[in-house]
Amino acid sequence: MKSSKLIAAAALVLLAAACGKNTRISGTLHEGADRQVVVKLLDVNRFQVLDSVKTDAKGSFQYSLDIAQGKPEFIYLFYKDRQIASLLLKKGDNVKVETDTLGVYTVEGSEESLKLQQVEKDYNAFIRQMQGILDREYNPDQALSRCYIDYYRNRLKYVVNNAHSLTVVPVLFQQVNPSLPVFGQNTDGLIMRNVADSLRMDYPESRYVKALEREAARRISLIELQNRVDSAQEVGYIDISLPSMDGKAVKLSESLGKVTMVYFWASTAEQKMFNLDALKPLYEDFHGKGFEIYAVSLDDDKAVWASAVRNQKLPWVNVCDTRGALSPYVGSYGIGSLPMVWFIVDGAVDTDAKVRNAQDIRSYLRRKL
C-alpha cells in the first residue's frame, strides 16, 4: 500500500514538473527517426545549449521550457551542426514545428516565429543575390552597391513597421560579411535607440532589448567622439592612462610616435595569433620610421593578459584595463568588438583611416610614414 502511494506521489511530482513548463514545442523531423534534436537559446551573441531531445520512430519530439512573462526568447533547433528551425517564443506559446534535416521548416502557433522565419528567408535571399552578383559580374561594385542599398531600405522599412516586435533585433544586427554590417553606419545608432525605446515599453527586462540599447549607445558615442574630434583645437583624441606590466600608469599622450596605433584587444587565441603574424612584423618594419603601438587589453584577468604579453614578447606599449566591457574607454572610443584600432597622426585621430587587416595597416603606414 505504501509502495503504491509512493509511486502515485512520484507520478504527481513528475506531472507537476511537466506542467510547470509554460511553453511547448511539438516537432516532427522528417526522415529523422531516433535522431537527436538539440535545443539552443540565443544568449545575445552566442548560443546556449538548453537540452537535446530524441525523436521517436516517426520523427516526432516534444520539448517544454520556462519562459518568463514579458521576456520572449529566441530558440533554435539544430540537427547535428545544422540549424533546422528558428523560433521566437513567449510565455504560454504552444507551437508545432515540421522540419527536415536540411532546415526546411514550417511553424504554427507563434506569430513572432513566423515573422522571424520570413526575416531569415529575406536575409538568405539577399546574401544569395550578393553572391550571384560576385559570381557573374566582371565589375560588380555598382551592382553590389545597388543590391545593398535596396536591401537596407527594405529592412529599414521593416524595422519602422515592426518597431514593437523583437524580430527587428536580429535585423539590426545582420551582416553582409563579418566586417560589413547591414546597419553599419554610426548614425544607425539613432535608429537602434528609437527602436530600443519602443521595445522597452513592452519588454523592459529583455536581454535582447538591453543588447540593442548597448549597441545604440556605442554607435552614438562614436558620433559624439567624431564631433569632439572635429571640434578639437589642441587635443584631437581622448587620452588614456592605464597600468602597464609593472603596475605603473602609462599615458597614451606620453607614448605617441609620428603615427600611433591605439589597439584594443583581448588575449583570445585568434588575437594572439594576430599579434605574432601581423603586428610584430609591422612593428619591426615601421617602428624605426616613427610607428608606435599603444595596446589596450580589455582582459578582466590581468594574469592572463600579462602571460600573453610575456610569452609573445610584445615590444610595444602594453596596458590593461581589467574593467573590460565596463571600461570608460569602451564608450569613449566606440569599441563594439575586438580587436579594434584607431590611428593618431600628429596629435589627432585620423578618422579617415580605413583598415580591416594587416595588409590595410601596412598600406596605411606606407602612406603616412
Query: Could you give the count of β-strands?
Result: 17
Percent strand: 15-25%
* Relative helix content: 40-55%
**Helix- and strand-based class?**
alpha+beta
The secondary-structure element order is HEEEEEEEEHHHEEHHEEEHEHEHEEH
Query: In terms of per-residue confidence, which ranges show pLDDT below 50 for 5 or more consecutive residues?
Result: 1-19
Report the C-alpha radius of gyration, rounded: 25 Å
Which outline best applies? elongated
Average per-residue pLDDT, rounded, comes to 88
Strand order of the largest sheet: 15-14-13-16-17
Distance between the termini: 91 Å
Total of helices? 10
Main beta sheet: 5 strands, mixed
Brief digest:
This protein is α+β, with helices and mostly antiparallel strands and 369 residues long.
Structure description:
The structure is a single chain. The protein has 369 residues and is α+β, with helices and mostly antiparallel strands. It has ten helices and 17 strands. The strands form five sheets. A five-stranded mixed beta sheet has the order 15-14-13-16-17, covered by helices on one side. A hairpin with a 2-residue loop joins strand 5 (73-79) and strand 6 (82-89). Helix 2 (111-136) runs antiparallel to helix 3 (141-161) and helix 7 packs parallel to helix 10. The longest helix is centred in the middle third of the chain and has 26 residues, at 111-136. The radius of gyration is 25 Å and the shape is elongated. The chain starts with a helix and ends with a helix.
